[in-house]
Amino acid sequence: MGRMPELPEVDALGEFLRERVVGREIVAVHIAQIGALKTFDPPLTDLVGRTVTGVERHGKWLDLALGRRGDADDGEPHLVFHLAKAGWLRWKDEMPPASTPAGRPMGRRAGPLALRVWLDDGAGFDLTEAGTRKRLAVHVVGSPEEVGPIASLGFDPRSELTAERLGAALRTRNQQLKGALRDQTLVAGIGNAYSDEILHAARMSPFTLTKSLTDDDVARLTDATRQVLDAAVAAASGKPAAELKDAKRRGMAVHGRTGETCPVCGDVVREVSFADRSLQYCATCQTGGVPLADRRMSKLLR
User: Fold this and answer.
1) Range of the domain at 28
2) Which residues are catalytic?
3) Tens-place pLDDT, residues 62-92
4) Do 224 and 147 share a structural domain?
5) Per the domain annotation, does 300 fall within a domain?
6) Same domain, 144 and 206
7) What pTM, to 2 d.p., does this model score?
8) Which intervals hold domain Formamidopyrimidine-DNA glycosylase catalytic (predicted)?
9) Could you tell me if 117 and 172 lie in one domain?
């Protein structure tokens, strides 16, 4: 099952952080995986001594706004990060002191740790990333729009979803519907897992071409998008960061459930595999009972 945090989990992480970090001062910050830090000006050390003034979500990105130091008119930087496929945020009510070896894991000792942040009340958080392919991204910027992928985001399906907007976005080019829903420049925050769930709820094939969508198709897809995301956000809301991944898995109807029974019709959930991901679907609900060809070596849906 795809592990990437998507809109509902990132939304819940933002809510979780907002309750704990707004009004708190950053007293120390260390980068453990230097490749995760994508910017150099302002430096990471510029965050120390600043107070967190807000936490916002942009698609799958989280954005911590930081106030000026004292009365200094030296700008208000943002700590912006994307957890990528295998990243996560781990909260600690009691952090090891930053001055101790345990507080500053670096190099090989860092393991999955990418970034560690200490707050003035003794708590803090780690950004971690499992596996060898490191894609977690941390930016320190004057404005989140300075981060290219944020500047190019499409509309947010939680706050800006209408049938007209979704239809216009999907019909900008002719591509498979699964790939279009995952395209962050069209719709922000939906990834591999929730695109499977939305298409199942809408009873549509992942390989439907966007130019073929009728107004009725778009209306059905809009309703399904709203239904799936609203339910996932509600399920994730208020949960501790450590429980969000399990909550995501439990809520899935088809994604990550190859070989299990479709909860709607009782057919078996099937899978199509690609080089670096897979999709799950129900043939009875979505493709008129016809199984899709397994395109394991295909370049489609990249």
Assistant:
1) 7-151
2) 5-6, 60, 277
3) 999 999 776 555 678 999 999 998 899 999 9
4) no
5) no
6) no
7) 0.89
8) 5-111
9) no
